């Protein structure tokens, strides 16, 4: 990929990103202590099972490998795509509760909100100077998110938020960023910012690492209507749902009229998705789950899925309910993470100022 083309050549660059991701995975195993993983979520409501099997489980795996894990509550990003963030305090608490309940351990990992880390946000400014408006505007994910947000005009913040995301990652010199394919254009922006900063201000010794995406091969769970599982589509099963709520959501899930249950994602996406969910919860192959139900029909399938989900998530949900009841503990956890992030960001900003000759 050329230096001036952060998102161009989609196929070649995807193959490239995949190859780098595979090398990164090896390196994370070989020398976990040499890595800092940064990833995060927008606090827009409770996390769901799609998040869990898609990314949350992987974060705990990385933490347990011994890498330094940073989990970002991207609260500033919520103002790019919604009008009234007055539910933010509850949404942030709920996100932190989800993280702790699934096993992110604040004695080893850092959970922080980027709005609380002033020096991180200050990096946004020099970083903006390293890209042209045309380069920033070429990002297909921003265009998609703009369409999805339903807003009529693109704000300056939404237009530039991939550059803000570079600050999220580079403030702590993140080396590995677990993301889905849709986030690759953003990560290309971060890599470009790092490369240009190094070339311009620290040519003899690169200051920022060029982080790699850690692409996941986790299967994608669909929503209960067969569409993309999403908080806003009312088709998701929240991590913190009760057993009864789970039963109700699964009983409403779309299926088809063929009584014989098979695992055939291409032709029977809705049924296969339920089979997959049970398989993930039970640590089995989806084909084995489908064979067990055979011609028991969708009723038997739904009973099995409900039991499997409720069984797998029982302890996580109990922990989550206890955590939500103790807001002080949630806030203390976040404050401690913010403080650690602030120390690191301050250190980075001091270096950046020195390298940019803006220390007086
Ligand atoms: N953009 C991500 C999302 O929409 C959230 C996010 C913000 C993020 N900053 C990040 C993810 C840095 C990874 C790294 O979900």
> What class do helices, strands and sheet pairing give?
mainly alpha
Give the CATH H-level superfamily of the largest domain. Answer: HUPs
What would the CATH topology of the largest domain be?
A: Rossmann fold
Mean pLDDT: 93
Helix content: 55-70%
Tell me the distance between the termini. Answer: 38 Å
CATH architecture label name of the largest domain: 3-Layer(aba) Sandwich
- Ligands bound, unique: tryptophan
Task: Report the order of strands and helices.
Answer: HEHEHHEHHHHEHEHHHHH
Sheet bearing the most strands, described?
A: 3 strands, parallel
**Any low-confidence stretches, pLDDT <50, length ≥5?**
1-8
Outline, from the CA principal axes? globular
Description:
The chain is mainly alpha-helical. It folds into 2 domains: 9-220 and 327-355, HUPs (Rossmann fold); 243-312, Tyrosyl-Transfer RNA Synthetase (Orthogonal Bundle), CATH 1.10.240. The chain has 14 helices and 5 strands. It has helices at residues 10-30, 49-65, 75-81, 88-102, 118-128, 133-137, 140-149, 156-170, 184-201, 243-251, 269-282, 286-293, 297-324, 327-355, and strands at 36-41, 68-73, 110-113, 176-179, 212-215. Strand 4 (176-179), helix 9 (184-201) and strand 5 (212-215) form a beta-alpha-beta unit. Helix 8 (156-170) packs across helix 9 (184-201), helix 10 packs antiparallel against helix 13 (297-324) and helix 11 (269-282) packs across helix 13 (297-324). The relative contact order is 0.14. The model is unreliable at 1-8 (pLDDT under 50). The site of tryptophan has 13 residues, from strand 1, helix 8 and strand 4.
């Amino acid at each position: 990929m050329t230096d001036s083309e952060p998102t161009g050549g989609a196929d070649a660059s995807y193959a490239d990103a995949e190859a780098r991701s595979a090398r990164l995975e090896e390196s994370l195993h070989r020398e976990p202590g040499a890595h800092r993983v940064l990833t995060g979520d927008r606090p827009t409501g409770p996390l769901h099972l799609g998040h869990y099997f898609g990314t949350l489980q992987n974060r705990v795996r990385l933490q347990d490998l011994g890498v330094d894990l940073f989990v970002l509550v991207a609260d500033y990003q919520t103002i790019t795509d919604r009008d009234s963030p007055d539910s933010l305090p509850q949404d942030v608490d709920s996100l932190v509760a989800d993280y702790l309940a699934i096993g992110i351990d604040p004695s080893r990992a850092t959970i922080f909100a980027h709005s609380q880390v002033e020096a991180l946000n200050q990096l946004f400014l020099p970083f903006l100077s390293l890209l042209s408006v045309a380069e920033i505007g070429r990002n297909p994910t921003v265009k998609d998110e703009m369409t999805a947000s339903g807003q009529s005009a693109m704000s300056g913040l939404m237009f530039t938020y991939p550059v803000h995301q570079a600050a999220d990652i580079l403030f702590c010199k993140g080396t590995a960023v677990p993301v889905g394919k849709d986030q690759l254009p953003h990560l290309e922006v971060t890599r470009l910012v790092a490369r240009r900063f190094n070339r311009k201000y620290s040519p003899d010794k690169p200051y920022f690492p060029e982080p790699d995406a850690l692409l996941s091969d986790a299967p994608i769970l669909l929503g209960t209507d067969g569409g993309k599982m999403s908080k806003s589509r009312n088709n998701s099963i929240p991590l913190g749902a009760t057993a009864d709520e789970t039963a109700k959501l699964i009983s409403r899930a779309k299926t088809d009229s063929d009584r014989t249950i098979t695992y055939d994602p291409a032709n029977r996406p809705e049924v296969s998705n339920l089979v997959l969910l049970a398989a993930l919860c039970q640590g089995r192959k989806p084909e084995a789950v489908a064979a067990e139900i055979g011609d028991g029909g969708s009723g038997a399938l739904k009973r099995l899925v409900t039991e499997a989900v409720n069984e797998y998530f029982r302890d996580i949900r109990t922990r989550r309910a206890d955590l939500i009841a103790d807001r002080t503990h949630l806030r203390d956890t976040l404050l401690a993470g913010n403080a650690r992030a602030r120390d690191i960001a301050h250190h980075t900003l001091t270096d950046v100022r020195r390298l940019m000759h803006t220390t007086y």
